[in-house]
Design goal:
By secondary structure, the chain is an alpha+beta fold. Helices cover 33% and strands 28% of the residues. It has 2 domains: 331 residues, BirA Bifunctional Protein, domain 2 (2-Layer Sandwich), CATH 3.30.930; 94 residues, Rossmann fold (3-Layer(aba) Sandwich), CATH 3.40.50.800. Bound molecules: adenosine-5'-triphosphate (ATP) and magnesium ion.
């Protein structure tokens, strides 16, 4: 992508409304634009990151055996009357009427709708286990939308729903998703700690929130400090192997880690004092086993191997991609801007032409740009006629992991500088070596 043809509305000033660093940087880097309270446009740079986050989520969901579909944002109130949540859900639900005066709503979540899909088609235990997911916009009329897309009213969620014949099967589905979440967050460059979470009025069930430690986080967390450093299940884990999944799950849940609602002083104090960690964090995912709550109310049942009808056991599993993007920034930035992990960087490399219009600089940059792009690397070429200083600032702000800097003096020797955004290290090398560095790292 040539910057001269791109749409990158960088802000020079620090936006006053932004209270936390990720919000400030997302606005300054031209990633998002607020349209009204808690409702955002994802500008091209932000959209690139969001797409990469979604692609990783999707790959890990698919690997774990979940199957993607797409449900609508608008739902009929009738479904929610069946489950009893139409009245129970408070003002967070945006209620709408269509021209026939039929009550509709903008979905805050999809348990009812997926249960309706399930009951329409699945009649036999032979079609289980089943896990269906989508990545779709949600709307919750949050009382205090804030911190940009961290807590917005319209936001993207990956929500998966598992269906099993009994509790044992549902627990296996839960453990698979647990392993998939560990892998997902790790690939996003994050350490998200699974914390025991409140299961609400249903009680007695399984629930974990995945939390990233951050001072600006809205959740309070308590855990063993070793939880911050851990092993991630490998890509070749057998997601169907019940024992393996149980092993991963148990290794993870045997240590103390809880949000404030589930905090148990006595258990926490049993940890040696120097190993206790109490901190703040950002909830980026939430998994939940809730048994037959919706399947019972909505008649989702299958014929079992015994020939009798069984109400299916369900779980739901959410991840917030539009919250993950600022969470990654909270975890990875410096005073000059964002430092993207390579896996989600909007551009893996930026080429900075320090003297656009200079024949030698232009030729070197064009060569690097052409070859690196041909190798399949997402590369941004700053071919504008801005001052070199402004180009450096932009490159640092938008956070591409590698910068290739071409100025008249080095280019005269057939060389360019390669800067690592994270460490700030600069290395002079030939044009060919710079191409190889960026192209083969892919
Ligand atoms: P919170 O406690 O932060 O309000 P929640 O518990 O209501 O979140 P869930 O219903 O568990 O959220 O939704 C699953 C995921 O969706 C969350 O883990 C989070 O990543 C994301 N999410 C929820 N609400 C928002 C929001 N208002 N803005 C952005 N992402 C959100
Ligand atoms: Mg939650």
């Amino acid at each position: 992508m040539r910057l001269s043809r791109y749409f990158l509305p960088i802000l020079k000033e620090n936006p006053k409304e932004a209270e936390i660093v990720s919000h400030r940087l997302m606005l300054r880097a031209g990633m998002i634009k607020q349209q009204s309270a808690g409702i955002y446009t994802w500008l091209p740079l932000g959209k690139r990151v969001l797409d990469k986050v979604n692609a990783i989520i999707r790959e890990e969901q698919n690997r774990s055996g979940a199957v993607e579909l797409l449900m609508p944002t608008l739902q009929s109130a009738e479904l929610w009357q069946e489950s009893g949540r139409y009245d129970a859900y408070g003002k967070e639900m945006l209620r709408i009427k269509d021209r026939q005066d039929r009550p509709m709503l903008y979905g805050p979540t999809n348990e009812e709708m997926i249960t309706d899909v399930f009951r329409s088609f699945v009649k036999s235990y032979k079609d289980l286990p089943l896990n269906l997911y989508h990545i779709q916009l949600k709307f919750r009329d949050e009382i205090r939308p804030r911190f940009g897309t961290m807590r917005s009213r319209e936001f993207l969620m990956k929500d998966a729903y598992s269906f099993d014949l009994n509790r044992e099967g549902a627990e296996h589905a839960y453990n698979r998703m647990f392993a998939a979440y560990l892998r997902t967050f790790s690939r996003l460059g994050l350490r998200a700690i699974p914390m025991r979470a409140d299961t609400g009025p249903i009680g007695g069930n399984l629930s974990h929130e995945f939390i990233i430690l951050a001072e600006t986080g809205e959740s309070e967390v308590f855990c063993h400090k070793d939880f911050v450093d851990f092993d991630i299940p490998p890509a070749d884990s057998d997601f169907n192997d019940v024992a393996e999944m149980r092993g991963i799950f148990e290794q993870w849940t045997s240590r103390y880690a809880a949000t404030s609602e589930m905090h148990d002083e006595a258990a926490f104090n049993a940890i040696p004092e120097t190993d206790r960690l109490s901190a703040r964090g950002i909830e980026v995912g939430h998994i939940f086993y809730f048994g037959t709550k919706y399947s019972e109310a909505m008649g989702a049942k299958v014929q079992g191997p015994d020939g009798k009808e069984h109400i299916v056991h369900m779980g739901s599993y959410g991840i917030g991609p539009t919250r993950l993007v600022p969470a990654i920034i909270e975890a990875s930035h410096d005073e000059n801007g964002i430092i993207w992990p390579k896996s989600v960087a909007p551009f893996e490399a930026v080429i900075i032409n320090m003297k656009a219009g200079d024949a030698a600089c232009d030729a070197a940059c064009e060569k690097i740009y052409g070859e690196v792009a041909k190798a399949g690397v997402d590369v941004l070429y700053d071919d504008t006629d801005e001052r070199a200083g402004a180009k450096f600032a932009t490159a640092d702000l938008i956070g591409a992991p590698v910068q290739i800097i071409a100025g008249p003096r080095s280019v005269a020797n057939g060389e360019v500088e390669v800067k690592d955004r994270k460490t700030g290290e600069r290395e002079t090398m030939t044009v060919e070596a710079a191409i190889a560095r960026v192209a083969t790292a892919n």
